[in-house]
Design a protein that fits this description.
This protein is mainly α.
């Protein structure tokens, strides 16, 4: 996987919604994906490749809330816990 290829995939779905969320398990980097496989080079170049596509940018959750209208409500019947 290259940063260029991944950014093309992200750009291909641009316009199908307001935001694409990227969630990364930091344990992956250096423990499951070793440096010699290129994971750090991938991460180093990904922002530049994403921003080469028109209409792509990065926003924080707060910026997304300010920029886009709510489209619905989520109802969680049970608490959702993250791993600590």
């Amino acid at each position: 996987m290259t940063a260029d290829k991944y950014s093309n995939w992200l750009s291909a779905v641009n316009g199908n919604g307001n935001v694409i969320n990227l969630f990364m398990d930091y344990e992956t980097f250096g423990e499951h994906q070793w440096e010699d496989k290129g994971i750090f080079e991938f991460l180093k170049h990904l922002p530049d490749y994403v921003l080469k596509h028109p209409h792509n940018d990065f926003v924080t959750p707060s910026e997304a809330i300010e920029r886009y209208n709510s489209v619905g409500e989520l109802d969680f019947h049970n608490f959702v816990y993250g791993r600590c």
